[in-house]
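Hi P.,

Sorry for the delay on this. The queue was packed all week, but I finally got your sequence through. Input first:
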Amino acid sequence: MKKVLIFIFLLTFLPFPIFAQSQNENEKLDEMTTDEKIDSIYVTSKEILETIKSEPLADKKYGIEINIFRLLFYGSDMSLLNHTFSGGFSLFNIDRHAEIAFPIFYSNPKSNLYDDNNIRQFTLDCHYRRFLGNTQNGFYISGFIRYANLRGYLGSWIDYFDDEENEMIKDTENKIGIGIGIGFRKFSYKSFYWGTSLNLGRYFVGENDKFRGEFLWYDNDNEVIFNFELLKFGWAF
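Then the structure:
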């Protein structure tokens, strides 16, 4: 009998707090003016629209891109820009919050002064780029692995200024390194996109400072991996 009385009590009085809370919410809603209701609906609609607009890659799977600056000067008479190419291929449908990219770089500069000392370089990267927002757009952080194939004449950059005749031995070196990066991607609904990136890393496999020729600290003949891309444009499909 006692259990029955407790059950009747709970069944009778338990709905009152819920009913009171619902009634208070309805009163607050009734107290809002028409303008306030319109503003609230507008803000909510705008948030939904912005979320939809930030998904330009919703139906895109792949992308190709090139560095316009390097392409314009490919084969020109400019010393260090002659015969250089930077491009890449991307996968967008693996993870809708990320991108897997395969940047490619080729350089075979032909200087009028040091034709025999330039290093031919080819690099192929694999980048995993994680976007910081809710969709595939805007800023991202990345991790990557790089394969580099270098070919040139053995020696040191000091040989540039050595008047003695040195034996010219040509050789090839394969290197592998890893690194991290940051970047920004801006995609449009017309499939066109633009991006910029900064990558830093280090080679762990392969010999460094092996060739005469380019002696810049960020060259692939060194231990440090440094890469900055600015004018890189692509097309998603």
